[in-house]
Amino acid sequence: MNVAVVGIGRIGLPVAATIASKGHRVFGCDVNASLVERVNRGENPIPDEAGLGAMLKEVVASGRFSATTGTAEAVAQCDVVLFAVRVDVDDAGRADLQYLFAAAEEAGKGLKPGALCIFDTTLPVGTTRRELAPRLEVGGRKLGRDFHVAFSPERLLMGRVIEDLTKYPKVVGGVDSGAGERAAAFYREVFGGDVLQLQSAEAAELSKLAEGAYRDLNIALANELAMVADIHGIDVTEVIRAANSQPYSHIHVPGTGVGGHCIPVYPRFLMQGEGPSALSALGRDVNDAMPGYVVDRAAELVGGLTGKRVLILGLTFRPDVAVTFHTNAVDLLREFERRGAVVRGHDALLSTDGVRELGFEPADTLEGFDIAVVHSNHRQYATLDWAKVAPLIVDARNALDRSAIEAAGSRYLGVGRPATSA
User: Fold this and answer.
1) Residue 210 lies in a domain
2) Buried b (16+ CB within 10 A) or exposed e, 170-205
3) Which of the residues are catalytic?
4) Residue 258 is part of which domain span?
5) Does 312 lie in the same domain as 235?
6) Mean pLDDT per 10-residue run, the chain (422 residues)?
7) Domain end marker among 198, 229, 253
8) Residue 158: which CATH number?
9) What's the pTM value of the predicted model, to 2 decimals?
């Protein structure tokens, strides 16, 4: 089977390589010419994606996978077209679909008769049917007659995409008659895992938004519990551990908000006015306020932040993955600077230029600060001598070993956890 994957970024490339590893001929389509050239040399542009390097080298060498900027030409050779183009939010908080629209319009120029198009990017409910399918109807082609469209949201965690492709059931829903069945059969063939076929593309779209909104609201609840715990001098991690010992409670971990492609973005797709979204909006408000809340707690402990030297460690949105989309590290930077602190940033996974691109002045040392905030607890930070780093260590994700920090001679402050006494 010939398959085109349109968009070979953090999700599309490992998906394309995995399909090719199953013996299919795959074309990776992207507008980034330098990325295409690099991939065609067998070089892995995502080194922190587990298993991708060896797999990519093998499928490129075998001829089963190649990348191209000629999307329409590649699509013309393919029975199935997957769209893995990232969707973000614009300044108004609405889905920014411009790149996906452009990709659909370009792919539509080359669709072969009977082609199945599957949109694999999380979308507001109704987008696949109302906005994307019509963009494929170029040159007189008709949906349901000349091509077919389904929606199947990615359910993958960056850094372990290849593993997750078969770890969870694939959800699919068709736009036109028979598209859902065809999409389900395709995924069973290329990945071999379970498939949940829903009654429509809209149902599949909403299922993915439900996942994201649930996590955002759950974290917002954890953050509210953390703030209550602070008032009463309680350790919220103890509280959550006790609550979660009951099988119907699954409270997440509080922190300085949420980042990445998914959790801070997908609830906003529900907030675009096509249904009730009061809870999603409240969850966003709570989580967006957490950086300022934690900075205020740190300020109280050190008697104000004016002139204080602050180090933020780990600028990516989660540990050991070099992705910075919607990272809360920049929110912490803003809140500390607003209160007069002098802030430096460091990330073991980013270059100096990468640190500066986030708005940070790079740290030239990891010692001698007044406060250090561990935002993403990369493995490389495990051997730091905390006493030399700063007298106050702020655990932005409740991920550190409190006893180790205190044993080293530094004070510890977590989210919803009592600070070490002075």
Assistant:
1) no
2) bbbbbbbeebbebbbebbeebbeeebebbebbbbbb
3) 208, 262
4) 221-414
5) yes
6) 97 96 97 97 94 97 98 97 94 92 96 96 95 92 96 90 90 96 96 94 96 96 98 97 97 94 89 85 96 98 97 95 93 98 97 97 97 96 96 97 96 97 84
7) 198
8) 3.40.50.720
9) 0.93
